[in-house]
Amino acid sequence: MCSVMRLLGFPCRVVTNFESAHDNDRNLTIDVYHADYGVRETPSPDSIWNFHVWVEAWMRRPDLAKDGKYDGWQVLDPTPQEKSQGVYCCGPAPVVAILNGETDLKYDTPFVFAEVNADCIDWLVKADGSKVNIFSDTARVGQNISTKSVGSNKRMDITDSYKYREGTEKERSVFHYATTRDLSKADAIEEEGRGSTDVVTPGIPPQPPSQPMSMYFEEVTPPKNCEDVRLMLVLQSKSSAAMRLFISIRVQAMRYNGSPAGTIQTEVKEETLLPGKELSVPIQVPFSAYYKPMMECDIMKVSALVTGKEKPDNTYLAVHDVVLLDPPITITVSGITRLNREAEGEVVFMNPVTETLKECTLTISRSGLLKEDIEVKIPDLKKNNRICVKFPFVPYKPGRKTLVANFDCSTLRDIKGSGTVDVKL
């Protein structure tokens, strides 16, 4: 879409938003529901994607204001997540309107505002069906909003053009202003036919009451794929009385779009937190437990739901995303590499697990160095054995290039390594 817009004469650029919210019901919050004991968990239509990509096009918006207030960069999403006016489309939404929380303006401004600045609310669903706000995070959504710098391959951070700095009064006041806008006003201006999706009137999210305890996760060691993951749940008492606690720990494999792919493990512990003290609860996730669920996933989500034994209404939540580091795979090129002359590269990978790796393939690729990908079938790789694959290639473009190696097998997916090649004339 960026290329087509440029062809038509529109200045255009690609934008990436990390921790991108998918606000299904348009209430400007991402709602996650947790089950109380004996209560069936309620799935949430909302989610947070690892990242989402759209384009910005520079254009005038006389349909919104004659004084040019909303001219400039407009969000256009060629891969939208929801229907707009009955079809999958999104935008143009003025970036300046998103910055200032003007969610009553067309087109699809409320959805884009939520993508970059929604609040995250965790609810505990009680046995009677009532919901209690147990955790709020106002800063998670919309991280490192980025585009390519002009004239270089460096990343340019444009987060400040979409929202004011997290934690500032200005950012909070804009969010509260956005929740007061009449989103149906924008719908009425736009063409009819958005569909039958129910629209929830936004409101200022209720905040959880102050708690006599806080908690968080710590990574004991850097989490590496093929090794056991070790974490520590740290509870800190702010109370003058001891608290007997039920601690329910859940580990899930998460897809890139924020939806769970499966539960890796669960455990329930009973602990006592002494007044004014700190309690550390160890958590270990064995490789044998997570490797199958994580083969097609990007993130391991660890959550702890803590409930007071004597006071079950006292509920606490901590959530931590674990991103596994891949085992090393190296790719090197020996000697000086010259344009249109044959060179030789080498890929080395060692089996990092105790079992034999089967159905192994190695794929080597890079534009400017290889006109076609090289795919190599690898024999079964036993414990502590390594492969060493040498390959010839003829560079057809000069300059600094990167070779990429991708290793796949029945146990591991998308283990990547890269090496830089300076192609001289």
From TrEMBL:
<protein>
    <recommendedName>
        <fullName>Transglutaminase-like domain-containing protein</fullName>
    </recommendedName>
</protein>
<dbReference type="InterPro" id="IPR008958">
    <property type="entry name" value="Transglutaminase_C"/>
</dbReference>
<dbReference type="InterPro" id="IPR013783">
    <property type="entry name" value="Ig-like_fold"/>
</dbReference>
<dbReference type="InterPro" id="IPR038765">
    <property type="entry name" value="Papain-like_cys_pep_sf"/>
</dbReference>
<dbReference type="Pfam" id="PF00927">
    <property type="entry name" value="Transglut_C"/>
</dbReference>
<dbReference type="GO" id="GO:0003810">
    <property type="term" value="F:protein-glutamine gamma-glutamyltransferase activity"/>
</dbReference>
<dbReference type="InterPro" id="IPR036985">
    <property type="entry name" value="Transglutaminase-like_sf"/>
</dbReference>
<dbReference type="InterPro" id="IPR002931">
    <property type="entry name" value="Transglutaminase-like"/>
</dbReference>
<dbReference type="GO" id="GO:0005739">
    <property type="term" value="C:mitochondrion"/>
</dbReference>
<dbReference type="InterPro" id="IPR050779">
    <property type="entry name" value="Transglutaminase"/>
</dbReference>
<dbReference type="InterPro" id="IPR036238">
    <property type="entry name" value="Transglutaminase_C_sf"/>
</dbReference>
<comment type="similarity">
    <text>Belongs to the transglutaminase superfamily. Transglutaminase family.</text>
</comment>
<feature type="domain" description="Transglutaminase-like">
    <location>
        <begin position="1"/>
        <end position="80"/>
    </location>
</feature>
<dbReference type="Pfam" id="PF01841">
    <property type="entry name" value="Transglut_core"/>
</dbReference>
